[in-house]
Design a protein that fits this description.
The chain is mainly alpha-helical and 430 residues long. The protein is built from 19 helices and 2 strands. 57% of the residues lie in helices and 2% in strands. A two-stranded antiparallel ribbon has the order 1-2. The C terminus is likely disordered.
Length: 430
């Protein structure tokens, strides 16, 4: 460790001890401006034999016990590195160098499992229903779901999973070590959106080291750390995968992909169904477009399909408006056919434009008839040469038929008259 880094850490230790209680909140907000402090603290944690490790762990615990969210997140960002230091020292069977780290982790655990009144917490988690969209899936992408009686009975019901109450721990043992570490990773994942890129990188490195140490993949990766196999649990791997998923979608593509493959490798060797299910599901859902962005300073998010908000009514849907429009089109076609028949018959019928009169076409397909005076007649100037024009084509057809009937009757009478005249002429000749 360089003397400059050591000076930064010592200044940080002495500065916090002299702060009054009223200035702690302002100090917590100014921690993000100390750019050289975080790398120096990482170096202290990685050096297990450093003289500054014990005071650093003590001050990190004071940060977490203060209850201020900024100070608690500052401590949580070092959690992956603290976990690896503890596991590596436990594998080397040298517990004397990890006493302060164990005290820090147990202190955070015991603070998180109780509420403000000192009562044991019971955490609840709601499992999303596949019939409703979430940030991870769309019901339309799954396909048609059979509406059985059981599915309808469970529709809209939310399944709630509870965790706790958890027992307080005073020391680490082989039986409770991963129970405590899994819960600490759960607290870390709850604050993932506040973690820095350095912390996410440390999480990915922790996942790879824990999963490949002592296995053939360690030689393939050329990792020269400890060669002892570390015992893990399925729940611990699931929490690691949750953090890796966030790191993958927020700039740590290379480290995140490698860590996810290593966790799945270990889950296959141990035959952990929960870790295999979650890991393979995340690996299948990651598209190339979601991982191309390597911008670590931009907005952190996951690309998902968004349910369209536009109306899904078909354009061919039959409505009252479409029926009226269809009647209007049929009305116009009938007018055209009457005009053609009149032209073929040699009868001159004046053209009538419905839109040319004072009435106008309405939006629903009907026409607005012009208002008539008391005699129910229109002025001759309105329609040109015709003093009276009936706008209804049905009355026009009836008038044409009545004229044809009268013409046929007159022809019949003329034929009868001619017949009677020729008969009378014959009689007079004889």
């Amino acid at each position: 460790m360089l003397a400059m880094d050591q000076g930064v850490v010592e200044e940080w230790l002495s500065e916090f001890k002299t702060l009054p209680d009223s200035a702690v909140s302002t100090y917590a907000k100014s921690l993000k401006d100390k750019g050289a402090l975080v790398p120096a603290l990482y170096k202290v944690i990685r050096e297990n034999y450093s003289d500054l490790l014990e005071p650093v762990c003590h001050q990190l615990f004071e940060f977490y016990r203060s209850g201020l969210p900024q100070l608690q997140r500052f401590t949580l960002q070092f959690l992956p590195e603290l976990l690896w230091s503890l596991l590596s020292v436990s594998a080397a069977r040298d517990p004397h160098t990890s006493g302060c780290i164990e005290a820090l982790l147990l202190g955070i655990y015991n603070l998180e499992i109780v509420d403000k009144d000192g009562q044991s917490k019971v955490l609840s988690f709601t499992v999303p229903s596949l019939s409703k969209p979430s940030v991870y899936h769309e019901p339309s992408a799954i396909g048609s779901m059979a509406l059985t009686e059981g599915a309808l009975a469970n529709h809209g019901l939310s399944r709630v999973v509870y965790s706790g109450p958890h027992l307080q721990r005073e020391t680490f043992t082989a039986q409770n070590r991963f129970e405590v570490l899994t819960f600490l990773l759960l607290c870390y994942n709850a604050a993932l959106s506040y973690m820095t890129s350095t912390s996410l990188q440390s999480l990915c490195q922790l996942s790879s080291r824990v999963c490949i140490c002592g296995y053939p993949r360690q030689q393939m990766r050329r990792y020269k750390g400890i060669s002892t196999r570390l015992t893990v649990t399925s729940e611990f791997l699931v929490q690691l995968i949750t953090g890796i998923h966030y790191a993958l979608c927020n700039g740590e593509v290379e480290l995140g992909s490698k860590a996810l493959d290593d966790v799945l490798y270990r889950a296959q060797l141990e035959l952990f169904p929960e870790a295999l299910l979650v890991g393979n599901a995340i690996k299948s859902s990651l598209h190339g477009a979601a991982l191309k962005s390597n911008n670590k300073e931009g907005a952190r998010s996951i690309q998902v399909e968004i349910t369209p908000t536009s109306s899904r009514i078909s354009r061919n849907a039959v409505t009252s408006l479409s029926i009226r429009g269809h009647r209007w089109k049929r009305h116009e076609s009938q007018e055209v056919s009457v005009d053609n028949e009149a032209a073929l018959g040699g009868v001159a019928i004046p053209e009538i434009s419905v839109t040319g009169v004072s009435g106008e076409r309405m939006a629903n397909g009907d026409s607005l008839r012009p208002r008539l005076d008391g005699r129910n007649q229109l002025d001759g100037d309105t329609l040109g040469a015709s003093p009276e024009v009936n706008l209804d084509h049905r009355s026009h057809d009836s008038t044409t038929r009545s004229q044809e009937v009268r013409r046929q009757k007159s022809v019949r009478r003329m034929v009868e008259n001619e017949g009677s005249g020729s008969a009378s002429t014959g009689r007079s000749q004889y």
